[in-house]
Specification:
By secondary structure, the chain is mainly alpha-helical. It folds into 2 domains: about 90 residues, Endonuclease Iii, domain 2 (Orthogonal Bundle); about 110 residues, Endonuclease III, domain 1, CATH 1.10.340. It contains 11 helices and no strands. The chain is globular and about 55 Å long. The structure holds a DNA duplex.
DNA sequence: GACCAGGCACATC
DNA sequence: GATGTGCATGGT
């Protein structure tokens, strides 16, 4: 299906031309990135940025520090991101398995196959496919594709893929039709979010969207 | 005041 | 496999 390959490439070229490189993920360390991936579930990034900045200011932005914090204490500090009780539990679940890897032992993960690592992440209660792929792609620097609500909406509106389409089908669609390039995957997802935020909201629809000519 | 935001687990049909 | 619900704050 070289037709799809060309179409996906064209989509990337249009986005990178319109917006330029996004330089994702906004975060300085793998741990900060992984934490942000959990906190931003169904939540505006501005709320997450505030919480992370506050944690950093208090010297709590370390896996051990958060692990030792009682869950109720953590929940209180997570208030601005919403679902704070839920997310405090999810952060603890994640740290119970992965905390030791952030203590200067991240290279130990090199021996793990990406798909194996992905399954391990998905075993953590509170980490679903999007969060797992975000952590893999941006914190662990593994080539995978992140599919989010914007991806579904954008591709749906422009009839780029069949409908309905599962998360896994959409992820494979991108992986199958793009060169296996880490920074390409990192930029592509970031650009889809940028397009989604600026032009592909539920309302208003599509005003001034760089993909306007693609609308069917 | 309604609607939305870079989801996920769980129940039910 | 598809669909519905609870989780919750902050911005438009």
């Amino acid at each position: 299906m070289t037709h799809h390959r060309r179409r996906v490439r064209q989509l990337f070229e249009t986005l990178i031309t319109a917006f330029g490189p996004q330089g994702w993920w906004p975060g300085e360390t793998p741990f900060e990135i992984a934490l942000g991936a959990i906190l931003t579930q169904n939540t505006a990034w501005t709320n997450v940025a505030r919480v992370i900045a506050d944690l950093k200011a208090e010297g709590l932005l370390h896996p051990r520090a958060l692990q030792e914090l009682p869950q109720a204490e953590l929940a209180r500090r997570l208030r601005p991101v919403g679902y704070y009780n839920l997310k405090a539990a999810r952060v603890h679940n994640f740290l119970a398995v992965f905390a030791r890897f952030f203590d200067g032992a991240l290279h130990q993960l090199d021996a793990w196959d990406t798909e194996v690592l992905r399954r391990r992440l998905l075993e953590v209660k509170g980490i679903g496919p999007e969060t797992a792929d975000s952590i893999l792609l941006y914190a662990f620097q593994r080539p995978t594709f992140v599919v989010d609500a914007y991806t579904f909406r954008i591709l749906g509106r422009h009839a780029l893929v069949w409908d309905p389409c599962s998360y896994e089908e959409l992820r494979q669609f991108f992986l199958d039709h793009l060169p296996q390039d880490l920074s390409l995957f990192q930029e592509f997802h970031a650009l889809l979010v940028r397009l989604g935020k600026d032009y592909c909201r539920p309302t208003p629809r599509c005003q001034g969207c760089p993909l306007e000519s693609w609308l069917t």
